[in-house]
Amino acid sequence: MTMKNHQITIFDLARELNISKSTVSRVLTGHPNVHPDTRKRVLDLAEKLDYQRNMIAIQLATQQSRTIGIIIPEILSSYFPYVIAAIQEEARNEGYNVIISQSNESYETEVTNAKVMLDNRVDGVIVSITKETLNFDHLKVFQKKGIPIVFFNRVCNEMVVPKVIVDDYEGAFGAVEHLILSGRKRIAHLSGPSSLAISVKRLNGYLAALKKHNIPADPELIISYDFSKEKIAIYVNHLINLKNPPDAIFAINDPTAIDTIQIIKKNGLRVPEDIAVVGFSDDYVSALIEPPLTTVAQPVREIGITAAQLLFDQIKKDSSQWKTPVKVLKTKLIIRKSS
Amino acid sequence: MTMKNHQITIFDLARELNISKSTVSRVLTGHPNVHPDTRKRVLDLAEKLDYQRNMIAIQLATQQSRTIGIIIPEILSSYFPYVIAAIQEEARNEGYNVIISQSNESYETEVTNAKVMLDNRVDGVIVSITKETLNFDHLKVFQKKGIPIVFFNRVCNEMVVPKVIVDDYEGAFGAVEHLILSGRKRIAHLSGPSSLAISVKRLNGYLAALKKHNIPADPELIISYDFSKEKIAIYVNHLINLKNPPDAIFAINDPTAIDTIQIIKKNGLRVPEDIAVVGFSDDYVSALIEPPLTTVAQPVREIGITAAQLLFDQIKKDSSQWKTPVKVLKTKLIIRKSS
DNA sequence: CCTAAAATTGGGAGCGCTCCCAATTTATTT
DNA sequence: AAATAAATTGGGAGCGCTCCCAATTTTAGG
Known about the structure:
Two copies of one chain form a homodimer.
Chain A: H1 10-17, H2 21-28, H3 36-49, H4 55-62, E1 67-72, H5 79-94, E2 97-102, H6 107-119, E3 124-127, H7 137-144, E4 149-152, E5 163-166, H8 168-181, E6 187-191, H9 197-212, E7 222-224, H10 229-240, E8 248-251, H11 254-266, E9 276-281, E10 294-297, H12 300-316, E11 326-329, E12 332-334
Parallel strand pairs in A: 1-2, 1-3, 3-4, 4-5, 5-11, 6-7, 6-8, 8-9, 9-10
Antiparallel strand pairs in A: 10-12
Chain A binds a DNA duplex (30 and 30 nucleotides) through helix 2 and helix 4.
């Protein structure tokens, strides 16, 4: 029961200056047609009275929330915080607020979050889906209502809207080729859930690199998993104990790669001597672990900025002029000691 | 220019059912005094027409934004994301939205962000200040306007409001005592800016531990720095090259400790054999680096939950009943290989 | 000095909803 | 069946602001 002391409104300012609220509104919104003297008087009084505009009223009147939403699967790895930071920066420049929601990799939560965004009348959303998301009705609603939506990282294939991704295929290809060129013969791949396009693309990059170098793909060495921490140990141990174990592991992402390294070490094997490991994303941690992780770096900042720009492009234009570009950004292989 | 297709309002529902908007409003807000049949008819139609309530209008009418703000210095280390995740969870349970803003350790930005929160009429804020924040007028405004505010981690001493902190003194004391008990004689301390209470408290804990064990504090071994990455190398190198160098370093936080380890290693010295290192916070990274970092763990989840609860306590009560508890949570020393 | 044009201001409806109070309908009691 | 109480509904003002259109004032032109 927040007892708000009566707030100062434009009407108060108007009364005090003996002018109309319309005029006050004009100067406060930076409208040009107002006498310089009047403008000054209003501004001075607003300053003096510590007037604070009520965005909620403005939003209602203008039918714009000046808020964008970000829906992401998690915030605890370093990839998303960096992207978010970049998005927020762009949003601030445009004078927009940002509502962030984590889905915690849960489809249900993602649906709820989308609903909340809708309730709050966001002017646009930037989303990266959960590993569980197979149905996209909750996101198509935005399209249907004419609310701009932009995907990044984990995108929805069946929706034709702007997207920002990296060249996962090429990134994976480069990483695996690097392993091959450094003499690895049996390269395993810890893949992600096949529902995610990034999983498939990285897997394809992996397969293509093998093929190019005439190494037959061994199904035994390809494991698709659902990002659950507990499972990694099982899979890595399984790989290690094969009669013909891998001499390298290419992991779908850095957290997986890092855990993989821990488990390999726990088994008394050495990285990279016995098994080389390569990850994807260049998390903040990756340079710090022992051995430092070879990984495919993503331009996180650029991803965030691009996504935000694509969104604001739409927000500013009439929906009839919307384009649906898919920006594919370049990755960069960072070779460290783990390979 | 988002072309919003005319949205369905409670008035539309009312007209369709031939009842008044008041009644529709009643059922939609869960008001009890409404005939069950009517309730059902309204709910069914709302469902059928995919009615979506307009939170902005509700906010204006009720004078409540149902939004809380979080102001933090940064989001890129793992401490804050964890705390935020916990706060968001609590907020969701209470039906509140969350606006997050990073100050990037800049006072200016913090002031701007506070203003944005005010513009958006947040019902409360949870804040952790930047290292630069010495003036608190921008935060006192919340108090003045009767908007609940709760501090955590980096708190403002001159404001009497609820706070959530950990026992920094004791945490530091325990960490340093641990170093002493494991035989270290010359323990340096990389402290934070003295403007932050946590810096002072951790420093005091450090000093107290030395005192207890009759080790004279050597000013040469105590360095206060401003969290700037570049400086760490300078300071650590300086310490190493003293005629009488330290055999242990207690760092104000984990990022500092981690960088310290890197620099020590770069100098050809071993951790912990030559110099032991202890950090503070138990960042996600800390267990993964080589050697794994001994650190003082903070109950991040509990911190977030507690802060949120303290905030909602106030939001729900009249300001006359506000209490100003300072919750001091326990830390836990996690001993790993770096000491 | 009068008139037309330009600049500036005011009035008022409207954004979608809540909530108080009064009106109406239904149920209860004697 | 009348009178009263309880349940349900409707009306309308108000939240703080924007923005269109009309009114007023100022400036320019002849």
